[in-house]
């Protein structure tokens, strides 16, 4: 999956110190100070895998615990979020 820019994005997160461009790139997000929203594009292979196997794995690089996260598969979320 690759992150993609979207018109509502108002910030861009940068890669962690010590990471290479191959490991991580900038992440466009929409933030209101309490939540961050990013948009991701699935390759055709990833789309077929999700369709046939019904699984999406979430990796969070944060250490000992996982912060609250959400995954959504909507065409547009702006009419669905608070």
Care to describe what's here?
It is built from one helix and five strands; from the N terminus they run βββββα. With 82 residues, it is of the alpha+beta class. The protein has one domain (1-82). The strands form two sheets. The protein has a three-stranded antiparallel β-sheet, with no helix packed on it. A two-stranded antiparallel ribbon has the order 1-5. A hairpin with a 4-residue loop joins strand 3 and strand 4.
Instruction: Pick out the low-confidence regions.
Output: none
Order of neighbouring strands in the sheet with most strands: 2-3-4
Q: Can you write the helix and strand succession as a string?
A: EEEEEH
Q: Distance between termini?
A: 26 Å
Oligomer: single chain
Number of domains: 1
Q: Care to count the β-strands?
A: 5
How does the major sheet shape up? 3 strands, antiparallel
Average pLDDT reading: 89
Q: Radius of gyration, rounded?
A: 14 Å
Alpha plus pi helix count: 1
Dominant shape: globular
Share of residues in helices: 10-25%
Report the structural category: alpha+beta
List the helices and strands and how they pair.
Layout: E1 2-4, E2 11-13, E3 27-31, E4 36-37, E5 39-41, H1 44-53
Antiparallel strand pairs: 1-5, 2-3, 3-4
Question: Which descriptors would you attach to this protein?
Answer:
1 helix; 82 residues; three-stranded antiparallel β-sheet; alpha+beta; two-stranded antiparallel sheet
